[in-house]
Amino acid sequence: MGYTLAVDIGGTKIAAGIMDDKKEWVSDFTQKSDVATPEGMYDCLLSTMYQAIGKAGLKKEQIDRFGVALPGILDIESGIAIYQNNLPWRNFPLREMLQKEFPNGTFCLEHDVAAAALGEYAFRKHILEIFIYVTISTGIAATILHRGEPIRGDGSAGEIGFFPIGKGTLESNASGSAMERELSEVYRINSIEEGMKLWHSGDLEMERFFSEKANQLALAIFQLTASLGPEKVVLGGGVINKQPEFFELIYRKFQLLCTHPIQKNWNQKLEKSILKEKSGLFGAATKARFLKRNATLLGEIRPDSL
């Protein structure tokens, strides 16, 4: 099959990795995003990709498959980055431009949360009816996989950040950016990490703060679980990956919600990310490896094939 290059594009950083035909990473490279202009952002993307290729000691002609994960609204079929809140691209013909740069390659695009979901799903080597990945980071979103395929609906499937919570939404209350804003404005605390340290040192205000946020997240996850009956719900994103004790708090809050006898084992559905910040890269690479004429073949994934 040759080599697969995966990229995970974000407003803060771009990560690239190259996977060989044994499904092993042979190189990776990460650098800060240049979001000043559309052209500058694209040049930054190319720079990241070429750095990963160089670190692997390869030539670009040796890369035959490319998986690209990015946030926001995108047309997966045409490869157009329609709108990304933290990126300068608007209706940007990303796949067309990359195809000109790498004419021998086959490209696919995927939403970054969906790519992370595919990565966690594939890494676990399960064939599951329903698998849910929830990212708790700058924002909050979920991807729902049915037999390895993302459920997209009208494009808004999994947008649990819009769940109403009090006077706001789940995202405006319990996302990483919302928590840091509240910590700064109300408690004069500079970061989630600092707040967590105070919590662990016995600060009652921080204990109440994180307990409330964990309860809000646990309730949203419970609603997803009750509605869809997933076999696994995996939590990832920067807040979870960097603060594993916050996952444990959410886990305990979720367990308290499972009061009916049929829910006695629901806590076993909940897991934290295994791949952490590499989830998106692994998912983008996985999807690219199962391309045929730009259509995914995730239905053909088997436990021994990943």
**Arithmetic mean of pLDDT:** 92
Question: Could you name the CATH homologous superfamily of the largest domain?
Answer: ATPase, nucleotide binding domain
Total number of β-strand segments?
A: 17
CATH architecture of the largest domain: 2-Layer Sandwich
How is the quaternary structure best described? single chain
* Percent helix range: 25-40%
> Count of DSSP helices?
10
In percent terms, what proportion of residues is strand?
A: 25-35%
**What is the level 1 CATH name of the largest domain?**
Alpha Beta
Structural class: alpha/beta
* Regions with little confidence, pLDDT below 50 for 5+ residues: 292-306
Radius of gyration: 20 Å
| Order of strands, widest sheet | 3-2-1-4-8
**Structural domain count:** 2
Q: Give the CA-CA distance, first to last residue.
A: 13 Å
The largest β sheet comes out as: 5 strands, mixed
What is the overall shape?
A: globular
Characterize the structure shown.
With 306 residues, the chain is an alpha/beta fold. The chain folds into 2 domains: 3-104, ATPase, nucleotide binding domain (Nucleotidyltransferase, domain 5, 2-Layer Sandwich), CATH 3.30.420.40; 117-276, 2-Layer Sandwich (Nucleotidyltransferase, domain 5), CATH 3.30.420.40. 39% of the residues lie in helices and 25% in strands. It contains 10 helices and 17 strands. A 5-stranded mixed β-sheet has the order 3-2-1-4-8, sandwiched between helices. The chain is globular. The model is unreliable at 292-306 (pLDDT under 50).
